[in-house]
Amino acid sequence: MRSIINSRYTKQLRSMVVCSLLSTALFVQNSLAQSPSNATGLLDPSGTMFFQNQYLGNAAMAGIDSGLHLNAAHRRQWQNSIDGAPVSTFFSADVNTGNRGGLGVNVMNDVAGLINRTRLGLSYAYHMPLSATRNQFLHFGMSLAFNFQRVDMSKVDGDLTDPALMAYNARDNYFEGDYGMAYTDEHWNLQAALPNIRALFTGVNRGINGGTLIYSAVSYKFKNEGAVSTIEPKLAYRNIRGYDDIIDAGVNVSFLDDVANIMAMYHTSKSFTAGIGVNIKRTAVIQLMYTAQTGGIRSYVDGGYEIGATVNLFK
Fold first, then answer.
1. Could you tell me which residue, 195 or 8, shows the higher pLDDT?
2. Distance of alpha carbon 273 from its chain centroid, rounded?
3. Which has the higher per-residue pLDDT, 192 or 301?
4. Taking the model in full, what pTM does it have?
5. What is the total count of domains within the chain?
6. Which range is most confident: 16-20, 55-59, 148-152, 202-206?
7. CATH value at residue 304
8. What values do phi and psi take at 180, rounded to 5?
9. Residue 58 half-sphere exposure, CB side, CA atoms within 13 Å?
10. What pLDDT, on a 0 to 100 scale, did the predictor assign at position 191?
11. Which residues pair with 234 in a beta bridge?
């Protein structure tokens, strides 16, 4: 009788979690449709966000696993085609603090032509267990972040006393916040995140155009014995300011007890991301990725090349 009650209770909790995630995503989408704002994220996020470092896309993933996790990624776009092409660098660190808590810090620097933007974020996440036997958790996370955006005067070929340049660099730094939630168990991973909640509720946003307003994702991990360790298909949705919505669909496959992996994601912006990685003694992970350019400008520029590294300590 107790097992039947527990089973019903677990099913009810799972239904509540799924409904909560979907309701959050629908509320955010409706709100943004009524009061759109500029976005502060990148139109093309780091490829590590999908599988290697999910904390980049959702504050609720900070400290989701035991130990300390250090992540870094570097990407160069259009390297051989355009002078001043975008170069992006990402760094994050997150740790499980015990008592169901997690802390994280993330830094992103994006240089494109004359514009240099740096974002510094601090995160806290709460991981609430639903069932210890099935490893079910509900996760909530919040980030507070500062955006610093300036024109690099050393690269200006013109009048350095131009009032427009001076006014741009004299702007105040922009303060913002992110909210995210997720449900995880042994197989499922459901996420919904809202970057820059300040813009949603106040209509004030001084970030750059062309970033993610809503991010949601669902994946299911198949676990196997043998050469193929896990197969994890994933479907993600991004609502983009000033662009068509983007759906990302792909899979990550791990081999030899997660010693190596290959991943691929197709984006409805007529692009794709593909990568290969290696896990060294379950401590250091190196991932090499290539993202093809979107369909509209593929004839003029090549894609982006990215390397991501993760170090897991004190697990």
1. 195
2. 14
3. 192
4. 0.82
5. 1
6. 55-59
7. 2.40.160.40
8. -150, 160
9. 30
10. 98
11. 219, 250
